[in-house]
UniProtKB/TrEMBL annotation:
Source organism (scientific name): Epicoccum nigrum (Soil fungus)
This protein's record includes keyword Transferase: yes
GO-annotated cellular components: Golgi apparatus; membrane
Pfam families named among the record's database cross-references: Glyco_transf_15
Membership in a protein family: Belongs to the glycosyltransferase 15 family.
Lineage: Eukaryota, Fungi, Dikarya, Ascomycota, Pezizomycotina
GO biological process assignments: cell wall mannoprotein biosynthetic process; protein N-linked glycosylation; protein O-linked glycosylation
Region (Disordered): 29-54
Protein name: Glycosyltransferase family 15 protein
Cleavable signal peptide: none
């Protein structure tokens, strides 16, 4: 009896095996459906479009579609991801100017300058791919280079500032300079006791444009850590400057701290008496003086934003001015900033129509904002600044003086956005 049951089980297993083989064999004669690549949101295994996921790469060959045949529904477009974390290629056609961005920074500024780069790239440079020069009084480390080069769409260059450009000149009385810093500290003057800030102001005033890396360029755009651009810029600002014969530009202007430059104007007047040939006709003296040059009204262009011509800064006129100021000692015996130095030089040495106000470049550097006047412009250029934060028409701004000097009509609606 037991043997009979055992034979029956063998027969049942055999019949089951035959049925299974039949179905397997019959299914192999039916064409299989193509393997659809999966592009679900959040799918970490998805590669670039047209490639299988990492789980499929070794098993399923990629699906190839001819121009007349597609294996995917026409209405379905998988999301794209820039390869190797690259920014999109330049989208504005045409020749580029011989220009670069330039930043003075240290390794510890990495994340603040990274924010600035993103603003500049997203709003402007991804369309043009201009180079970027980084300068430091020390060596840049690998992390700084790696992060910044990944963010910039053009080439990045890293330079070390020569020690003689970032130190006390031999003619400076160190004891006198130290006493000045201590006095300014007691008076709570901003950066009054800082040695490095003074080196920075002197370097930006007289040396950055002569660094070997900068000698390759004719135009520069200065960018500092923690700045923001609030509107799209859809044209080449460097080309605009060249085509319109501009040599210096700004977005914000204001009055300088009187305590930091008590003798700067006296030093300037001594310079103009010695080098009268360097003073341009039809200049912007009225922007910086309310009494025909007798005194300085302390107006200056805020130099943390500048787009300018490097050949002008390298000119004999500007170099003579800087060297006269440098030997005067005011960078260390007072606290002369590069902003009033650049501004006075531009106002005296350039024709007034060679200086440009970029109303359309929305810019922020703590604590001031330039937000373009005019609602339609802000909408068209995807601006995200609050017009009520605009500093232009504030009483401490000098931009109104610039408009008056150049007989410019203030933007429509400026009075409603104050």
């Amino acid at each position: 009896m037991a043997g009979t049951q055992r034979y029956l089980r063998y027969i049942v297993f055999a019949l089951f095996a035959l049925v299974l083989l039949y179905f397997i064999g019959s299914s192999s004669t039916v064409p299989s459906a193509p393997s659809w690549p999966s592009y679900t949101s959040g799918d970490k295994d998805t590669l670039t479009p047209g490639k299988p996921s990492i789980h499929e790469a070794e098993e399923a060959p990629p699906v190839v579609a001819t121009p007349h045949e597609s294996h995917a529904p026409a209405a379905v477009k998988p999301p794209t991801t820039p390869a190797d974390h690259e920014l999109p290629p330049a989208t504005i056609a045409g020749d580029r100017m011989n220009a670069t961005f330039v930043t003075l920074a240290r390794n510890q500024d990495i994340w603040e300058i990274a924010k600035s780069i993103r603003h500049v790239e997203d709003r402007f440079n991804r369309k043009f791919n201009y180079d970027w020069v980084f300068l430091n009084d020390d060596d840049f480390n690998d992390e700084f280079k790696k992060v910044t080069s990944a963010l910039v769409s053009g080439k990045t260059k890293y330079g070390k500032i020569p020690k003689e450009h970032w130190s006390f000149p031999e003619w400076i009385d160190q004891d006198k300079a130290a006493r000045v810093r201590e006095e300014m500290k007691e008076k709570k003057i901003i950066y009054g006791d800082s040695i490095s800030y003074r080196h920075m102001c002197r370097y930006e005033s007289g040396f950055f444009f002569r660094h070997p890396l900068m000698l390759d360029y004719e135009w520069y755009w200065r960018v500092e850590p923690s700045v923001e651009l609030h509107c799209d810029i859809n044209y080449d600002t460097f080309k605009f400057m060249a085509e319109n014969k501009k040599k210096y530009s700004f977005t914000l202007s204001l009055y300088e701290y009187v305590e930091t430059i008590p003798t700067l104007w006296d030093a300037t007047k001594n310079f103009t008496k010695t080098f009268p040939e360097h003073v341009a006709k039809d200049n912007s003296l009225k922007f910086i003086s309310d009494d025909n040059g007798e005194t300085y009204n302390h107006c200056h262009f805020w130099s943390n934003f500048e787009i300018g011509n490097l050949n002008w800064l390298r000119s004999k006129a500007y170099i003579d001015y800087f060297e006269s100021l440098d030997h005067n000692g005011g960078f260390f015996y007072e606290r002369w900033g590069d902003a009033p130095v650049h501004s006075i030089a531009a106002a005296l040495m350039l024709k007034k129509d060679e200086i440009h106000f970029f109303n359309d470049i929305a810019y922020y550097h703590v604590p001031f904002t330039h937000c373009p006047t005019g609602e339609q412009y802000r909408l068209d250029h995807k601006c995200h600044c609050n017009p009520k934060d605009n500093f232009d028409w504030n009483g401490y701004s000098c931009t109104s003086k610039f408009y008056e000097l150049n007989d410019m009509k203030k933007p429509e609606g400026y009075d409603k956005e104050q």
